[in-house]
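Input for the complex:
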Amino acid sequence: MSRYLLRHEAILAVLLVLALAVLAMQSDRFFTLDNLLNQGRLMAEVGLVALAMTFVIVSAGIDLSVGSILGLVAILLGVFWQKLGLPLPVAMGLGVVVGGVAGLVNGIIITRFRVPPLIATLATLALYRGLAEGISQARSVRGYPEWFFVLGQGEVLGVPTQLWIFLACAVIAAIVLGMSTFGRATYVTGANAVAARFSGIPVDRTILLIYMASGLISGLAAIIFVSRVSTTRSDMGTGLELDVITAVVLGGTSIFGGRGTIIGTLLGLILMQALKNGLALAGVKGDGTIVVIGLILIATIIISNLVRRDADG
Amino acid sequence: MAIAGAINRRSAASRLVEAYGQEFVVLGAIIALFMIVGAVNPRFLNDNNLVNIFSGNAYIAVAAIGMSLVIISGHIDVSVGSLIGVLATIAGTLAVQGYPIWVAWTVPVLVGIVINALVGALIAYFRIPSIVVTLGMLSILKGGLISVTGGTWITNMPPEFFIAQARLFGIPAPVYFMVVLTILMALWMRYASLGRAIYAVGGNPEAARAAGLYPERTCVLAFAMHGFFAGIAALLFATQLQVIQSTVPPNLELTVITAAVIGGVSILGGTGTVIGSTLAAILFACISSALVFLNVSAYWLRAVLGLLILATVLADMARRRRHRAAGRL
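Predicted:
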């Protein structure tokens, strides 16, 4: 198994190098430090959510509500700060907490009521987005103070602020998934939940924590998103789940659970962002890149399934 | 023991209620909604409004028939909204470019069948989970549609094109489509062997295989039929107004899935009827219209839908658990 994982990631790395080389030849603006750092900035929100999604999918679950949680937290940030007059740092903290609660609700529906994650989060996708729309009544909030934009538009030591945050989270996620008891519990839960339960693994608690983390990190991504674009709207993060799931699955995490790594997810993320950017520089319009991402998602799984069948046989 | 006694004493009527429990619940909800909203604002029960509710949302009910097939067969399709957007655009474009009307009507349906049969084949033969294939399909169709058309509006279709605006005995054509297709499919799924195969495969694919059915072919069939209904839905959607906006109708897939699930199609596959999904689609249409008549902001609609789907799913799980408990007695 681990040999296969390494192979998938090796294939991906080679693919990434090839893609970067081709894209660099297509446009001389691609391989500039400015462009690469800027791409990192754009990648951070999807990347943050993808870290948590790796845990979710490894545990044989899925979380379709992340984009809606992002939208809800973004709206509430504006409401807490502007309508309720709370200090902005408090509003930010509360926003992330709301994200965590939203994730916890997902986890409770899944573990307590045994609703399949796909359906549970499809329902909360509608619910959270509906709450965001209902609360905001399609009004946007602007006029955040200058210091707030440091998070999404500023730099620390020449690198975008959110890239530091993302890297820190990625290191933590890689350590937790790869080296901790919790990480092992996540793999076992995803590979065979029944066996895990009989082996004394706290399956329900593991799943609950994973979905809560997914909500928390979506809340954090929401704050960064608002800071980057300087405004809140209720449709923020629509379709985010697609990008996130594509990156994670592209990175070699099995949609059936039990397999996947943070390194793979990082490679998947970079490949996706590089393609988006490279295609945009090559003159493909924004909607064309969505098509490519959809094709890549399906193609990767087909190839990965074929390779696995070979490996098994 | 109490349960066993109840089973012995049950009458034909109670068996009917048990078999179609969810359908009766939805029907009751529709009637209750009519009475309450009608009492608060009598204009809600006005003929015109009722006709608008039924004919304006018939395409959702038709799409939900196909979605029910897919979910009963044990899969899901999150790309149906994008597919309907693409097919509606194809229909409008053909009509504007002067092709015969029957071409503009049949090509989208055929394209729908072909695309979804392909999706079904990817799921069945390459063993890719339906959620992944249809998520990918969603972005391919949506991105493809917008990059080809730029989201422009299609206008100046010939007058014969507007099938959804035709009326027979004062009732708009979409209502006939909805009612006839629902009844035909309900009968087909109950009595035809292929229809029963969809239930069997969704309930337990391995058992179905052991019983001599072909789960792969059944999956492709369910998706191809789903494509057919998406095509019809796209036609009704494309021809109800004088313009077609060549983008994806927002959240359509969610509404369609929700209709199927609330109508009693179990999310775990294997059970449910298309009568339930059609009733649920009507219920939604009534709710969104009722919000307007009750002066509630339309922005709350999606939150209401989300709560509804959640409540139904939780009830479904609770009912299953009760059945399992009863089975063990």
